[in-house]
Amino acid sequence: MRIAVDAMGGDFAPVEIVKGAVEAAEKDGIDIVLVGDRDQIKAELAKHPAAAVEIMHASEIVQMDEHPANAIRRKPDSSIVVAAGMVVSGEADAIVSAGNTGAAMAVATLKLGRIPGIARPAIASFLPTNKGKAVLLDGGANVDCSVDNLLQFAVMGREYAERVLKLNNPRIGLLSIGEEPSKGNELTKAAHAQLAQSDLHFVGNIDGKDVFRGAADVIICDGFAGNLVLKIAEAIAEFLQSNLKEEINKNPVYKLGVLILSPALKRAKNRLDYAEYGGAPLLGVNGVCIISHGRSDARAIRNAIKAAASAVENNVVKFISTTVQQDEFAILNRDPSAK
């Protein structure tokens, strides 16, 4: 297995990207190909002389603030485009990028193509819960969705939760403003009716307070609501950490308490840290693509590479493709243009 890593993508590229890739190669035994400017990558690898990673040169970089479609059209030799091309040609089995999210989604969709039967790929993001973690689809790829889109997200989320997270018959919840089927906008009410008739383990609507209580293993929503949930959750985590640190620094006695509680506080911090999850898989494309946070450090990149390897090992793409084409999901195979 070889993972193509966009070495030039992210706020701390290539320093943290290379460091995380080296750790994944040395500690996890994963074959890595760093894609990007050869000279810059070599300069970073010089800090890790024993590292056994390959380099694929790419002369261009898609910046974080560039328009995705324009960037990939104007920069065919950019690191993200070259990395995707390696998967298409069979030179790599997956892509990991912490760069421009829109560009990563566009390249994956255009280069890898969509799985037959899937109308729109979705970002599967992770949220900590009282019972472990939940997968949320869509994390921001599709602001406006149809009922069929949400059904497909549910199927893809179930397959990922079963294959990678090893959850038996994962519970599917629909994000809404109340538990009753009558609550929500027209989209969620119509989606509830369809999900209730499917063979998915649908547990009904879940509202905001139930997300972190672990009411569902897979949470379905459109990308607008999903991205808001993720950004607010991240902001709250940072707010709590900064305020806790501020209060602790006000009194030396509190610092003694922190020493006692240090192991518990560290575990809690890790559960809230996006770096712990590495990145979010873009489900629905015909290949494995992991999109990492733009602020990813070496630990986040290493975890993203591990997530990519796990998705490849567990044949996530194959199982999603098989499932959406089965008769019981005939509704998913309708011509998208018919709606």
Described by the principal axes of the CA atoms, the overall outline is globular
CATH architecture of the largest domain: 3-Layer(aba) Sandwich
Percent of residues in helices: 40-55%
* Secondary structural class: alpha/beta
Name of the CATH first level of the largest domain: Alpha Beta
- What is the CATH topology of the largest domain? Isopropylmalate Dehydrogenase
What's the N-to-C terminus distance? 40 Å
Q: Report the order of strands and helices.
A: EHEHEHHEHEEEHEHEHEHHEEHH
Identify the strand order in the major beta sheet.
3-2-1-4-12-11-5
Low-confidence blocks of residues = 330-339
Give the count of structural domains.
2
What's the rounded overall pLDDT mean?
89
CATH level-4 homologous superfamily of the largest domain: Isopropylmalate Dehydrogenase
Radius of gyration from CA coordinates: 21 Å
Largest sheet features: 7 strands, mixed
* Strand residue content: 15-25%
Instruction: State the helix count.
Output: 12
Total strands: the figure is 12
Description:
The structure is a single chain. The protein is an alpha/beta fold and 339 residues long. The chain folds into two domains: 1-118 and 284-339, Isopropylmalate Dehydrogenase (3-Layer(aba) Sandwich); 125-275, Isopropylmalate Dehydrogenase (3-Layer(aba) Sandwich), CATH 3.40.718. The protein is built from twelve helices and twelve strands. It has helices at 15-28, 38-45, 68-74, 79-89, 101-112, 147-163, 186-197, 208-211, 223-249, 252-272, 298-313, 316-324; strands at residues 2-6, 31-36, 54-57, 94-97, 122-123, 125-129, 132-137, 172-175, 202-206, 218-220, 279-283, 288-292. Strands 3-2-1-4-12-11-5 form a seven-stranded mixed sheet, with helices on both faces. Strand 2 (31-36), helix 2 and strand 3 form a beta-alpha-beta unit. Helix 6 packs across helix 7, helix 6 (147-163) crosses helix 12 and helix 9 packs antiparallel against helix 10 (252-272). The model is unreliable at 330-339 (pLDDT under 50).
